[in-house]
Amino acid sequence: MSSDQDSEDDPDEPFIPLGSEELPAEPPADDTRGAHTAIARSLYPNIPRVLRKEARSFFDGAMYAYTEGDLPGARLSFLAVAAIGDPDTAPAALVFLGVIAFRRRDAIEARMWFTRAASGPDDHWALVAAQELRRLG
């Protein structure tokens, strides 16, 4: 007997006609975190210690520039942090990039940064980004 015939006669799996199975529960519309988990893992690989220190320096400089009102300077430093991809500083940098984009009245870019931050590994910044996405509508 071939293996094809064995699988057809398998009594463990009942026959279910097409269209009669229950639909899977849909995730909430604002649950972006679960939808982007694989992307988030690929965005935050293991980073060498030297690059982590560099990201921390850029982040500290960006926060100083942001608090002083130098949004273009802060944006450049946050972009450097996001490019390095350090899991400790990149999620916050992505949120701040979204805030800066929104202050420049660029809602599309803000949505992109908030979506990336919402799918990241840091629960706090993912929640902040998800709330900002809800505010954008």
Question: Which keywords apply here?
Answer:
137 residues; mainly alpha; Serine Threonine Protein Phosphatase 5, Tetratricopeptide repeat; 66% helix; Sel1 repeat family protein
Q: Describe it for me?
A:
The protein has 137 residues and is mostly helical. The protein has a single domain (33-136), classed as Alpha Horseshoe (Serine Threonine Protein Phosphatase 5, Tetratricopeptide repeat). 66% of the residues lie in helices and 0% in strands. It contains eight helices and no strands. It has helices at residues 3-8, 32-35, 37-43, 49-67, 71-84, 90-103, 107-118, 123-136. α4 packs antiparallel against α5, α6 (90-103) packs antiparallel against α7 (107-118) and α6 packs parallel to α8 (123-136). It is flat, with a radius of gyration of 22 Å. The model has no long low-confidence stretch (mean pLDDT 80). This is Sel1 repeat family protein. Residues 1-34 are annotated as: Disordered. Residues 1-13 have a biased composition (Acidic residues).
Our count of helices gives 8
Overall mean pLDDT score?
A: 80
Estimate percent helicity: 55-70%
Radius of gyration: 22 Å
Oligomeric state of shown chains: single chain
* The named CATH superfamily: Tetratricopeptide repeat domain
Low-confidence stretches: none
One letter per element, helices H and strands E, the order comes to HHHHHHHH
Task: Kindly name the structural category.
Answer: mainly alpha
Task: Please give the CATH architecture.
Answer: Alpha Horseshoe
Number of beta strands: 0
**Name of the top-level CATH class:** Mainly Alpha
Give the total of domains.
Answer: 1
Percentage of residues in DSSP E strands: under 5%
User: Which outline best applies?
Assistant: flat
Q: How many angstroms separate the termini?
A: 60 Å
Biggest beta sheet summary = none
